[in-house]
Amino acid sequence: MLRVLAVDDEVPALEELAYLLRQDTRVEHVATASDGVTALQDMVQLIGAGERLDGVFLDIRMPGLDGLDLARLVGGFPRPPRLVFVTAHDDCAVQAFELEAVDYLLKPVRAERLAEAVRRLEAAAPSSEPGADDVIPVELGGVTRFVPQQAVWYAEAKGDYVRLHTSDGGYLVRMSLAALERRWASAGFIRVHRSTLVSARHVSELRFEGGRVLLTVGRETLPVSRRHTRQVREQLVRQFKTLT
After folding, report:
1. CA distance 26 to 22
2. Residue 55, Cα to own-chain centre: how many angstroms?
3. pLDDT tens for residues 38-70?
4. Backbone torsions φ then ψ of 55, nearest 5 degrees
5. Pairing mode of beta strands 135-140, 143-148
6. Alpha-carbon distance 243 to 101, whole Å?
7. Residues 6+ apart with CB under 8 A from 166
8. Please, are residues 70 and 40 in contact by the beta-carbon 8 Å criterion?
9. Distances (CA, A) of 82 to 35, 114, 121, 204
10. How far is residue 34 from each of residues 60, 169, 211, measured CA to CA in Å?
11. d(CA 41, CA 136)
12. pTM score
């Protein structure tokens, strides 16, 4: 059962969102806040008191502390709640997913669409399989394309960006490799080099060649750094045992 916080400066929208959430049998408790500052204070108080907070349904355009700024602050918590953005604006989706949101809803919120967001929030909980339905938004010529986690062979650090390699090609997203590793570690992604994160499900071969360890991932051959060799072998063994 989920415990969530709904945040919106528009009272009717907040009341409607809270009502719909309370109708969902997967939601145990719904708290509300009408601005970002109050929401932050409530979260600090809840977490400080040892209370569990699984998710925050968050508006973006709010006076004072807006939803994106609040999300950045929440990301610094030791165990941050998952984020679902609920907004009337469709131009912040990329920023929202860069902040590791599990979903992005447009107002007016439909009950069936909110139910799907709750499902994703529930799936993102530690007791579920994290990352299974995760997607990364990519800007391509003014069009936002959503790249599913399961389609990614490996991710490669490129300065302040990460290139996602898939069977369809590469996609550049503004995100650190460390943030992506945290987001997808439980979905079977393994750090094999300081600049490379690999999907274990797409590893078809591990071999030694000239004193180096090499992985075949999709159609690519990637080196494993000496620092990561032991950890990679152990993680691959655990992963394959899980799959079989």
Report:
1. 9
2. 12
3. 999 998 877 755 678 999 999 999 998 999 999
4. -155, 160
5. antiparallel
6. 27
7. 147, 151, 152, 153
8. yes
9. 18, 15, 7, 33
10. 12, 43, 60
11. 30
12. 0.54
